[in-house]
Design goal:
Growth Hormone, Chain: A, two-stranded antiparallel sheet, about 650 residues, single chain, 22 helices, mainly alpha, globular, 2 strands
């Protein structure tokens, strides 16, 4: 009874369906990719929401004179805040020098995790607000901004490519592993994933207002007190909230309540870290990570600068700059210069919620790109912003008047629509134009670095009049739209872009070098052992004629010239009368035909190495450069005869 029971336990499953199991396997893979996209999107939303909410609450509290004097005395909070904002806005300027190196060194997922951890570190320093805690954490946060969002964009693009791979696994099995899928085949999945990511990301502006709505608004003065000295708003204003009252808090919040709010924000930041760490899978396979690093750290440092040669990237730079301008204008220009200046600080949170909900809903409008031409979403977003900029250029709301507040909410929501179309369209376009996995981290680094440069420019020009800000915004928008349409025209004409050479893995890579050295050593050992065996088995006397070569298997490789008389030498050291390693051709006489078939010996060597290209070292006998052994002498039925007088080879 033990035999049948054992067969039933370890034997083949009788109802096993290979196709069904394969389908289930790739369905689980696709669900894993969707899980990665949702986890990365939720992690980015929570991280940015906590950062914006804490920074907004911190700046409002530190702006109040009474709060500064009672809580911190003569510690100089305004100076600390200015240094902190400088660290956040100035540090990303140097991000182009280190971001690609960090992403390649840590990997895409771990770079996301470390950057989210730095955001959490910035939140934790607000428990003890001092110069030596706030300013260093702000500098560290500024260093992590570009790596975080560059790795996020790269991660979403890689997930779209993986989803396409798992959805079309049957086509790839038919084409072979070496053949790449058609260019742009992952574009529909990329469009969907970018829409999901940015719908979550823009919700972070609404999440950031929760501490303001449920906590800080209960301590604020109304607009009649805060806007008492404000004379002009909108297009007639200068700087940021000129004439705004220096006391905005009716009562000071208790320290215990502040600690509770900061603890909740810290818990949310820690949850974002856990989401990225536990639910986000790797963007690349381990061998792909090794290949991406093995191009050399010097090349990794230089490649972002070399990509400037590509005309597509140069034409998109104005759009990158405008993308940074419009986000900061939504938070400072519309929300402060038009909103708070006219309807009070207590309605700031609701204006940003309107912007957030409009942008989040409009991110899903990017799915229309599945049926519309590619330039439509970007041009539509630019058109919405162009119309709003013209309207804002001639509108100056009256301070302390609430009748026009609905116009502010509509303007904020429409600006969010344009921002969503801009962000979704740009990220999708970059993922389509640069789908090579060895270029994506460089491209998204350049994109977010130009955004950081634009934000730094807005930080420097924060004291300019509102009309000057609107004029710069308008000129940049028109230049970006014209430059983008020019790029699309060049692509339709078939102008080839100039890209830096994409080098393969270097031979100095440890894993690759060890594998090649092991393969070469084993191949040489087997070749020498095969030569010794053939010498021992060499027949004495005349034997049967050799059989004609098999045409299906191809001609037997050899390195002897026709009519050569010298002794055969080992591979790499040809003896006299042998063919050089890369001679023009070797001659083979095919049975049944009089014409010789000439095959280059370099091609012979390449074909002989093909069986050894794989995940494991070769197990078959290497016959490169060696003549096929003659058949063993035997009887009529090929029975081998016993050998006598042959000395054993030690």
């Amino acid at each position: 009874m033990r035999g049948p029971q054992l067969d039933e336990l370890v034997g083949a499953y009788p109802n096993y369906n290979e196709e069904e199991e394969e389908r289930r396997y790739y369905r689980r893979k696709r669900l894993g990719v969707l899980k990665n996209v949702l986890a990365a999107s939720a992690g980015g939303m929570l991280t940015y929401g906590v950062y914006l909410g804490l920074l907004q609450m911190q700046l409002i509290l530190h702006y109040d004179e009474t709060y500064r004097e009672v809580k911190y005395g003569n510690m100089g909070l305004p100076d600390i805040d200015s240094k902190m904002l400088m660290g956040i806005n100035v540090t990303p300027i140097a991000a182009l020098l280190y971001t690609p190196v960090l992403i390649r060194f840590f990997g895409t997922k771990w770079m996301m995790f470390l950057a989210v951890g730095i955001y959490a570190l910035f939140v934790s320093t607000n428990y003890w607000e001092r110069y030596y805690t706030l300013v260093p954490s702000a500098v560290a946060l500024g260093m992590a901004i570009v790596p975080l969002w560059a790795s996020m964009g790269n991660y979403i693009t890689r997930m779209a490519q993986k989803y396409h791979e798992y959805s079309h696994y049957k086509e790839q099995d038919g084409q072979g592993l070496k053949q790449r899928p058609p260019r742009g085949s992952h574009a529909p999945y990329l469009l969907v994933f970018q829409a999901i990511f940015y719908s979550f990301f823009h919700l972070s502006f609404a999440c950031a207002q929760l501490p303001m709505i449920y906590f800080l608004n209960h301590y604020l003065y109304d607009l009649n007190h805060t806007l008492y000295n404000v004379q002009s708003c909108g297009t007639n204003s200068h700087g940021i909230l000129s004439g705004f009252n220096k006391t905005v808090l009716r009562t000071l919040p208790r320290s215990g309540n502040l600690i509770v709010v900061e603890s909740v924000l810290m818990a949310v930041a820690f949850l974002a870290m856990l989401l990225v760490l536990g639910l986000c899978g790797a963007a690349y396979r381990p061998t792909e990570e090794i290949d991406l690093r093995s191009v050399g750290w010097g090349n990794i440092f230089q490649l972002p600068f070399k990509h400037v040669r590509d005309y597509r990237l140069r034409h998109l730079v104005p759009f990158f700059i405008y993308s940074g301008f419009e986000v900061l204008f939504a938070c400072t220009g519309i929300a402060l210069g038009y909103g708070v200046c006219s309807v009070g600080l207590e309605r700031l949170a609701y204006l940003l919620v309107a912007y957030s909900l409009g942008a989040s809903a409009a991110s899903l409008l990017g799915l229309l790109g599945l049926w519309l031409p590619r330039p439509v979403p970007l041009v539509a977003g630019a058109g919405v912003h162009l119309l709003l900029t013209f309207v804002l250029f001639f509108w100056a709301p009256v301070p302390r008047v609430l009748q026009h507040s609905w116009i502010l909410y509509v303007a904020a929501a429409l600006w969010g629509v344009g921002s969503a179309l801009n962000k979704t369209g740009l990220s999708t376009l970059l993922g389509i134009l640069y789908e090579d996995k060895e270029r994506q981290d460089f491209i998204f680094t350049i994109y977010h670095w130009w955004q950081a440069v634009a934000i730094f420019t807005v930080y420097l020009g924060s004291s300019l009049p509102m009309k000057a800000k609107l004029a710069v915004l308008l000129v940049t928008l028109v230049a970006a739209a014209v430059s983008y349409l020019r790029m699309e025209q060049k692509l339709r004409r078939g102008v080839a872009p100039r890209q830096p050479a994409s080098r393969g893995p270097s031979t100095r890579c440890a894993v690759t070098a060890i594998w090649r050295r092991t393969t070469r050593t084993r191949a040489t050992r087997r070749a020498s052992m095969g030569t010794a065996r053939r010498r021992r088995r060499r027949p004495r006397g005349p034997g049967p004629a050799p059989s004609p070569p098999d045409l299906a298997a191809g001609p037997a490789p050899t390195n002897r010239r026709k009519g050569a008389t010298g002794p055969r030498s080992s591979e790499g050291s040809p003896g006299p009368g042998t063919q050089p390693p890369c001679s023009p051709a070797s001659v083979y006489h095919v049975s049944g035909r009089g014409d010789p078939l000439r095959v280059p010996s370099c091609l012979q060597r390449l074909l002989s190495l093909l069986p050894h290209i794989g995940d494991a070292p070769p197990r078959a006998r290497v016959t490169s450069g060696l003549q096929q052994p003659p058949p063993r002498r035997g009887g009529a039925l090929g029975t081998p005869q016993p050998r006598t007088g042959v000395r054993k080879h030690s």
